[in-house]
Design a protein that fits this description.
Length: 171
Amino acid sequence: MSPTADLDPFAPTLTPGRARALPWATVMAGSLVTIVPVIATVPILPPCGLLMLLAWRLLARFALRPWAAAPLGLFDDLLSGQPLGSAVLLWSLSFLAIDLMERRLAFRDFWQDWLIASGTIVLCLAGGRVIALPVGAHVDGALLAQGAVTVLLFPVSARLVAWIDRKRGLA
């Protein structure tokens, strides 16, 4: 069976407005994961909104505009309890850093995307720690665990974004 066997050229696609709104909705749904009540001794819940944002940016470059990181970061800040503006700043800086890397790299494969996402995730988590917590707080072990879990979950979010992008009909 060929990989294009499930494509139906006559299947109805989403309207252009809905297809443009779908990346925004998936990043916002990822940010909504933080309001799910989870009881844990160590807070290692990954920032799913950031994962979805990075997956959309790295896999479907033009799905989100460069300025989209700021309002999506504000939405994440309102839900996650981080200081207002921290995700706005960190996510916007992530988009700028990825844009600079794309100018240097002519071609990328999945491993490079994973490496770029890993660096961005670690820097965003570390930056969020510096912004939100006092220097003397002992959260470094939990932060390392959260970073490792988040980095390992990037392929799952990338697979989900690739599937959604294929289904929305603009791939």
